[in-house]
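Quick entry between incubations.
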Amino acid sequence: MAFNSLADFLTMGTHGAFVWSTYGLVLLILASLILNTVQGRRKVIRQLKKRYLRESDS
Amino acid sequence: MNWIWFHKLGSPKWFYQWSSKWALPVFSMGLLAMLVGVGWGLGFAPTDYQQGDTYRIIYLHVPAAVLAESCYLSLGVAGFVYLVWQMKMAPIFIKSMAPIGAAMAAIALLSGAIWGKPTWGTWWVWDARLTSVLVLFLLYMGIIALQNTLEDAALANQATAIVSVLGLINLPIIKYSVNWWNTLHQPASFSLTEKPAMPMEMWLPLLIAVIGFYCLVVGLVMWRMQSEILLRERRTQWVKEKVMNHGV
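Done. Structure below.
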């Protein structure tokens, strides 16, 4: 570990707020991207299924 | 030379089946490598003698910036392939990759701004490097906007392919902006071809993080392409069977 204590790790020397807000922001962006990908796939499958069922009814 | 792979890649059905096997392993590998690289950089890499621990933002900033450029290069190649050979898979790729590239460019810009404040004393300057990366982000957004507004699919394919190719001109500008103009941004600190400008204990976790970001993006783009393939090939029998057998 490059830090002597947990407090050192959290404050990152002096600019902890900058470092940690970057990490939080990136986590948020990446999580939304992954979620959007998974949900997009589900949505397509749901829509197509509905469409096929409608077609086979008529 | 054997061109069979090129023809196979042009087949949505073949790509769907092939990527079904690879998307999850590649994505998981990416997450793991990111966790190792970024975690190592955040907690174990040595403190920088000039910037202290603030420099640890690099473990997100550089991978995202590298990916923002690589993703755009791939868009340009796909645009070219579409314009020359009208390959069906190319616009599917462009549509799937654009939002990922936009996210990477956004991460590079935001992490850069937050890093700039304590080290340069400002969030933003209109210099060559920062501005050209902002242009890169806007190119991605432009491609996404074209896809969302052009209802005619053939027109949307054509237009996004043209923008993708034209935007390539921005890539050398980004790369050499730190050498051609005076800028606050430092020259490249991460390179595979030259001796790195940082000690091994800092560089290795960065390399792992970059590889992790690459794998994550490849896994994500495969999944997004699969959704797009299902949508565009909905009138084929194989898609119908695939969807109807899927338990959603």
